[in-house]
Amino acid sequence: MKTLKDSNPGDRVSVVKLHGQGATKRRIMDMGITKGVQIFVRKVAPLGDPVQVTVRNYELSLRKADAEMIEIQ
Amino acid sequence: MNHTIALAGNPNSGKTTMFNQLTGSAQYVGNWPGVTVEKKEGRLKSDKESIIQDLPGIYSLSPYTLEEVVSRTYLIEQRPEAIINVIDASNLERNLYLTTQLAELGVPMVLALNMMDTVKKRGQSINKEKLGRMLGCDAVFTAAVHAEGMEEVAQKAKEAATSGRLPKTASFSSPVENALQRISALIQDAADETYLRWLSIKLFERDEKVMSGLDFSETAKNQLEAIIAECEAAMDDDSESIITSERYQYIAGIMGECVQKGREQLTAVSDRIDTVVTNRILALPIFAFVMWLVYFISMATVGTMGTDWVNDVLFADIVAGTVDAVLGALGISGMLASLIQDGIVAGAGAVLGFLPQMMVLFFCLAILEDCGYMARIAFIMDRMFRRFGLSGKSFIPMLVAIGCGVPGVMASRTIENERDRKLTIMTTTFMPCGAKLPIIALIAGALFDGSPAVAASAYFVGIAAIVCSGIILKKMKTFAGEPAPFVMELPAYHIPSGRNVLLHMWDKAKSFVRRAGVIILPATILVWFLSTFSWSLSTVEDTADSILASVGNLIAPLFAPLGWGDWQSAVAAFTGLIAKENVVGTFGVLFEYAGELSEDGTEIWSTLAAAFTPAAGYSFLVFNLLCAPCFAAIGAIKREMGSAKWTMIAVGYQCLLAYVAAMWVYQFGRLLSGEGFSTGTAVAATTLLGFLYLLLRPAQSCEKKQLCRAGKVSEAR
Questions:
Q1: Distance to chain A for B667, nearest Cα, Å
Q2: Which positions in chain B touch A59 (Cβ < 8 Å)?
Q3: How far off is chain A from B706, nearest CA to CA, in Å?
């Protein structure tokens, strides 16, 4: 299973499924990361975490620990 | 006509700016009942009868965050007559997500498509008539920063309130609609028509807050669960995720119909700024420079000039002089004069002395916040701060606290997660603030030949206290759990609006004076009383005969294990509660130095050197660096914690840590200087071992992340 955590800056990926549950998952989905959405991985923060992605035409940052819940292809 | 209109929208949608534009300066700021979420209310500029209620900036109406729960409780229970939904039109897709949820609450709505200037610049266009038709409400183009469209929004909101027209709710795919219909049938006898859709969806999502509000029979519950489970099986997802995905699909349909895409997808300018500002190599140096600049402007130059003027000229000469003259003219002397001068005027001076520095600082921070850089700071620093249990947003309060703990604590408000915020508030004042510098100078000068290493070590002690506290407290039950999700929008950069920045600064300054004043003034009067009177309530010539001295004598043995068990030191530490620089002055009075004392107390160095061993002196320094901050900062802690209990926990923790840390310094210092092992050393060693255990013990076991997250959910609910 490939997750958003494994992607590199510059990748364009598509969300297959969201794992996990409860508040964190809901928060990620509320921000527009839902099944089938296209994500552009923009950059990784200078200290290696979090990552910055473009989703639904805006910039979002999330930690790698949370990115691990997002299955991509 | 008098209406109540609620203002709702995403963070960064320009909601605050619009609120300011709509209401002018007539605002009432407070807290929502029982929580520390800010509540703002104002009257419409064009119609003083209508009230605008500002809701917290939210992305959703889920049951998981305080802000979201506050907002939806207000909308359902207080029933405003209309909602103005502020939408960042340049980020329409995600902003409409909240809109679809607001539309279900059965409250008339107006869409304010804000930031239309940005949309136009990008060459996009939005068909507002069509958007309005599809969502069943009026849509208005606005640009709150330029005050465009404000009249129209207000007018349309009042029209919506009068007509009572309800917006259209989002339609979902047939399996979901089917399930929702069956749920509606289940509850329609018990529920109001206008809420039916909202309730059905919330029940489908298994929203426990809604569920517990309904009187459900066991059978109904089982039927409900069966309906949900059936739909979940059909769609291969959990019900909450199904609804979220459905909403975004519905929005995608609207976007396709109403939005003409422009030449470029993203704000190119913002992108280009970010290539430099959050660049792998440049990000940290740029960040360090920005922080230095903020510090330099507010603490070292402009702000300090203002503060020095207020302290040395305004209060020392002008106010004190005027009050003297007035008192003289009125023939008031003796005790009452002393109360007014040493109690009230000194107390007011202690509050207002900080004000210029703080206003400059707030001004700088408001600019950083408004232009979008604050989010980048959190992005850059998150990794480092997470290591010891804090979030990237904890950095700002600590930086600010180097100047003054009061604005430092107040700056913690930008941290959304309550646990992280409490932790930050508890540890922020460990940073040696400006007022502690004279104590450092006094100890360094009197006992360490003025070695600059003492000052450097003071900052090190402060940082170490923050890091260790973060690690230790995060392992306590109250603060335990996975770090809060750090899913944060990085808003596009824009030029800050002067009006907004000034209003922001003014708001903060006002609330500081009000809240700190309430605590500081009575406190200074109390200390004045205690140091002026003896137990027989007659005035004393020598402070050594005062109530304060006898109290000092009483508590002094408490500090004997720290190496400074005389009443003077105890009283000096105590008066530090009013303002830390008082510690030096108190020593001057108590060691009966007759002349005017310079700031670092050079005149009493030799007396102090005779009274203290180096270990005891450094122990005194450590205690004063870490113990309860001044009353102004305690007031700020109380305001930001929003609870007396948490204020006591915070102050208690600080005092405890200060006490044991100072004890280690003194006891191990004694041991090293060859004074032999004693009971004190044993106690110090034991507490140190306990401290190391708390520091190094493994965090609460969380073998499976999933399990832990699930645990957090139930706690959040």
A1: 40
A2: 266, 270, 274, 489-492
A3: 6
CATH number of B174-260: 1.10.287.1770
Q: Give residue-wise pLDDT tens across range B364-415.
A: 888 888 888 888 888 888 888 888 778 777 887 887 787 778 878 887 877 7
Q: Which residue of A has its CA nearest to B94?
A: A32
Contacting residues for B692 by C-beta, under 8 A, at least 6 apart: none
Question: Where do the CATH 1.10.287.1770 domains begin and end in chain B?
Answer: 174-260
CA distance B1 to A54: 45
What is the largest distance, in Å, between two alpha-carbon atoms of chain A? 30
Which residues in B lie closer than 8 A to residue A49 (C-beta atoms)? 382-383, 386
In chain B, which segments carry CATH 3.40.50.300? 4-163
- What is d(CA B101, CA B99) in angstroms, rounded to the nearest whole number? 5
As for the ipTM of the complex, it is 0.95
- What does CATH list as the number for B4-163? 3.40.50.300
Q: Which B residues in the span 472-531 are in contact with A, Cβ-Cβ below 8 Å?
A: 482-483, 485-492
Contact B601, B587 (CB under 8 A): yes
Q: What is the pLDDT of residues B607-661, one digit of tens each?
A: 888 888 889 999 999 999 999 898 888 888 988 888 899 999 999 999 999 999 9
Q: Exposed (0-12), middle (13-18) or buried (19+): which is B542, by Cβ within 10 Å? A: exposed
A53 lies in which domain range? 4-72
**Min CA distance, A48 vs chain B (Å)?**
7
| Domain CATH number, residue A25 | 2.30.30.90
- pLDDT recorded at residue B150: 93
> How many distinct structural domains can be found in chain A?
1
Interface residue of A4, A5, A29, A54 to substitute, partner B, most B CBs within 10 Å: A29
- Is the pLDDT confidence value at B692 over 70? yes
pLDDT at B707: 41
Average pLDDT over residues B240-263: 90
pLDDT of residue B703: 40
Q: Helices B679-696 & B644-672, crossing angle to 10 degrees? A: 130
Asked if B283 is an interface residue toward chain A (Cβ–Cβ < 8 A), one would say yes
Residue B93 has pLDDT above 90, yes or no: yes
DSSP B217: -
| Closest residue of chain A to B208, computed from CA coordinates | A22
pTM for the whole thing? 0.80
